[in-house]
Each structure stands twice: as C-alpha cells, then as structure tokens.
C-alpha cells in the first residue's frame, strides 16, 4: 500500500467516524502530479476503503488506469485540479447539517462567528442543482473553484479542497460545525452575534493564526 492510498483510506474512515459522510454518498481524491489524481472508485464506501478501491485518473485526457470504474463525480475533481494548481486534495460528501443548509433557501453559511470559521470559511460559493456526475455539474464546480475552496451544491452536498488533506478535512469539519450552530441557534431562538467585518479582516491579516490563503484568479 502506498502512502497516498493510506492517506485516502484513513481520511475516508475519519469522514464516516465523524459523521461527515455516510454509505456511498461521497468521494475523495489526491493529486499525484500535474497531470493525474488518485480518486475513490464508483460505489465505494468511504469508511471501508481498501487499496484496490482507487483509480488513477488523468486530469486532462480522462484516461484511467486499471479495470475499476472511477467515481461518477470525477468531472468535479478533475475540473478543480485543472483550474486550481494549488489544489492537492478534494473531499465531496453530504454531511447532515451542511446538506440541510444546501436544501434550504432560508439558511446560509456564516463565517463571522469564531476563529475557525473566520479562517476556513472565508470564501464559500454556491451553485444550482445539476445531476450528479454530469459534465454540467463538473463545469459549474470548476468555475466556482476560482472563487472559493468550499462549494455548496444546491440539494446535493458540498465539495471542499485545499493544499493538503488535513486542511481540506478541517474546512469540512468547520463548515459542518458552523451549519450545526446556525440551525441549533435558529431552533432555540438564539440570535448569533457576528464578529464585525473590520475585526475579521484584522484577524485574517494580522493575527498570525495561519497564513491567509487567497487565490488570485488570473
């Protein structure tokens, strides 16, 4: 088993153990080099991945290695890797609270709540519903990846990416936590207090929490 396979297996188990994915509802990938990625195969359960459950896929030619069928959501993954050279790891799943928000017109993501939301949820994009696995979905995700590392897909779920798998996972964990807070506060009639924009900007630029990640669309 290679180190990249082990990282994907461990990530899949973590997603399921922490209720960030369920059944066959998600897919994950890691960039191998400039031209190829390793992605979970079609129909695989993220919590039970084995070394034979992955497919080497060429980002630009759509050619794959081996007999196994790649995830049907491959167009989203390859689209992001094409547009964002800094993307090294991608997670797609349907966590409960995040998906509830994705299925509602009345709720939205709030980033000005606490330290992790200010940093990891600074840029969130939304796209309309497209059928899973469609090129239309892949194109819409790829386009929005120029604006954000988190893309909420209407009535579907979310796709998250970063320059490492731990950072992508942290984005997803923070997103689910924020969605849960918003929903629980709404249910309890609690009004959440947002951090002022000037304080958020000062935190991102001057707090030394983590280097701010800003992608410049060229």
UniProtKB/TrEMBL annotation:
Keywords attached to this Swiss-Prot or TrEMBL record, sorted alphabetically, are: Lyase, Metal-binding
Is Lyase one of the keywords?
Answer: yes
Q: Which GO terms describe its molecular function?
A: aldehyde-lyase activity; metal ion binding
Residues forming the Class II aldolase/adducin N-terminal domain are: 6-183
Q: Which GO terms describe its biological process?
A: pentose catabolic process
How is this protein annotated for GO cellular component? cytosol
Using the record, list the residue span of the signal peptide; answer none if the entry has no such feature: none
Q: Which InterPro entries match?
A: Aldolase_class_II_sugar_metab, Aldolase_II/adducin_N, Aldolase_II/adducin_N_sf
Organism listed in the record: Lentibacillus halodurans
**Name under which the protein is recorded:** L-fuculose-phosphate aldolase
């Amino acid at each position: 088993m290679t180190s990249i396979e082990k990282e994907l297996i461990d990530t899949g188990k973590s997603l399921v153990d922490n209720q960030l994915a369920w059944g066959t509802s998600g897919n994950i990938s890691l960039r191998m080099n400039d031209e190829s990625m390793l992605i979970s195969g079609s129909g695989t359960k993220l919590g039970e991945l084995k070394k034979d459950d992955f497919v080497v896929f060429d980002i630009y030619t759509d050619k794959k290695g081996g007999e196994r069928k790649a995830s049907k959501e491959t167009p989203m993954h390859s689209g992001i890797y094409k547009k964002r050279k800094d993307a090294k790891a991608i997670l797609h799943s349907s966590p409960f609270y995040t998906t509830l928000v994705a299925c509602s017109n009345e709720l939205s993501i709030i980033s000005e709540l606490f330290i992790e939301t200010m940093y990891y949820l600074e840029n969130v994009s939304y796209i309309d519903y497209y059928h899973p696995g469609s090129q239309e979905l892949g194109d819409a995700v790829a386009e929005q990846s120029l604006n954000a590392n988190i893309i909420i897909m209407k009535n579907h779920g979310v796709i998250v990416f970063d320059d490492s798998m731990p950072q992508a996972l942290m984005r997803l964990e923070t997103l689910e936590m924020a969605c849960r807070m918003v929903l629980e506060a709404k249910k309890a009639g609690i009004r959440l207090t947002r951090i002022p924009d000037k304080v958020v900007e000062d935190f991102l630029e001057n707090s030394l929490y983590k280097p701010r990640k800003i992608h410049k669309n060229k």
